[in-house]
Write a structure and sequence with these properties.
Layout (H helix, E strand, L loop, with lengths): L1 E5 L5 E11 L4 H12 L6 E5 L15 E4 L12 H17 L5 E7 L3 H5 L1 H6 L1 E7 L3 H4 L3 H13 L2 E4 L4 H9 L7 E3 L5 H8 L4 H9 L5 E5 L9 H10 L8 E6 L6 H14 L3 E4 L5 H10 L2 E4 L8 H8 L3 E5 L15 E3 L4 H10 L7 H6 L5 H17 L1
Parallel strand pairs: 2-3, 2-5, 3-4, 5-6, 6-7, 7-8, 9-10, 9-12, 10-11, 12-13, 13-14
Antiparallel strand pairs: 1-2
Helix pairs in contact: 8-12, 8-13, 9-12, 10-11
Length: 393
């Protein structure tokens, strides 16, 4: 959909509505667009895919128009390191210029080097530039990239931050983002929506997912990345295995970010402990995700960095006991008291036994009510209202 606007010089120009810049193959981004479509919005959404996969965009029908980075040089040149970098830059530049449209909104979904390289064109082709950090683009970048990304934040009209969170505060602090630039928007958790609507009991959740309700279920991490620190968690559990409930079942969700070498190491480590365990390697349905959240007695969350904490929200809403890495702070969850046991790898063995034996409920009723702000339904509605407002300005 195109709309006519008057620019600063009084010239009437035609602008399309929204261009998303991101990885079109990413499931989170795909879910985001599907969520907007579900709001029956009255604006168009195009995408510029920066994945560099040179492949067809999955579910391209979600978008009004799709654009990809295309190659303009002989294949042989892309195999020569020094030359490849230069021609890939020209590919990026030429591919974006081919779009040939101006937009009311260009929304960067995860800051990348492409965002920096195309920044002048983004500003030239948009009325509003909105930047949406995802986490790794804040916490896992070096000084050189940080300097480049700073230009993206400075040039953006708005920056999306998770409301009332350390992640939001870190974005503001690290990139000097003025408060009036901040939009309190995030993706939210669709699993949290479903957990809130589901009334399956803990025992029934265990029975449905594991075939028995008799196990004491300890879930370790939420994906297969080594950054989840599975190995140190296993070491801690092994040190206190004689003090664990006899019916303990260790559960490791490994449905994405898998690497064969690391999984082999993980299995060997688990087998050496003699503890009962289950590796969840197949993708879980939404209902199975709910059963895992509700059927877990203790969730151990010790990963290196974490931005969105969606899994933590889901486990806490399910009234699951949680051990959380002491270096990960979530101020939005601590307003009504700390709802988890902070831990380090030095204290983890003792912390596991302490929290298993405590009967105190760490999750307050106020926190349960507050968590709706981080649900998918709440956040997608806020995104839709923001887009509609800016397009009509």
């Amino acid at each position: 959909m195109a709309r006519v606007f008057e620019d600063d010089k009084g010239v009437m120009i035609m602008k399309k509505d929204i261009l998303i810049v991101g990885n079109a193959h990413d499931k989170h981004l795909e879910r985001f667009i599907k969520g907007l479509k579900g709001k029956s919005f009255q604006y168009s959404v195009d995408i510029f895919d920066i994945s560099m996969r040179y492949a067809d965009i999955p579910n391209a029908s979600l978008y009004d128009n799709t654009y990809t980075i295309t190659r303009h040089f002989p294949k042989l040149l892309y195999k020569i390191c020094g030359i490849a970098k230069i021609i890939k830059y020209f590919d990026l530049l030429r591919s974006f210029k081919k779009i040939g449209n101006s937009y009311s909104i260009i929304n960067i979904q995860v800051v990348t080097i492409q965002s920096y390289l195309l920044l002048k064109l983004y500003k030239q082709y948009s009325k509003y530039l909105i930047t949406t950090p995802w986490g790794s683009d804040v916490y896992r970048i070096g000084k050189s990239l940080k300097r480049k990304y700073q230009h993206v934040y400075d040039a953006s009209n708005f920056v999306c931050v998770m409301p009332n969170t350390k992640f939001g505060d870190d974005i503001i602090e690290q990139f000097n983002v003025p408060k009036d630039k901040c939009l309190e928007l995030c993706f939210g958790s669709d699993v949290l929506d479903k957990v809130m609507a589901d009334d399956t009991s803990k025992d029934d959740s265990k029975q449905n997912l594991f075939g028995t309700k008799e196990n004491y279920v300890i879930t370790c991490g939420y994906n297969a990345s080594p950054a989840q620190n599975h190995i140190p968690i296993i070491d801690a559990l092994n040190k206190v295995k004689l003090q664990l409930p006899k019916n303990t079942l260790l559960v490791f969700p490994l449905t994405y970010a898998r690497k064969a070498e690391y999984l082999s190491e993980l299995k060997n480590q688990l087998q050496s402990t003699g503890l009962n365990y289950r590796l969840l390697s197949n993708y879980l349905s939404d209902q199975e995700m709910i059963w895992l959240r509700k059927g877990t007695d203790l969730f151990i969350h010790m990963q290196q960095t974490d931005a969105y904490s969606s899994s933590l929200h889901e486990y806490l809403y399910s009234k699951t006991k949680v051990i959380n890495a002491a270096w990960l702070s979530y101020k939005e969850l601590e307003t009504w008291g700390v709802p988890y046991k902070p831990s380090t790898f030095d204290t983890l063995p003792n912390d596991i036994i302490e929290i298993i034996n405590t009967k105190r409920d760490e999750v307050s009723d106020q926190l349960i009510k507050f968590l709706i702000v981080y649900s998918w339904s709440y956040q997608i509605n806020e995104w839709n209202k923001t887009f509609e407002k800016l397009i009509m300005q």
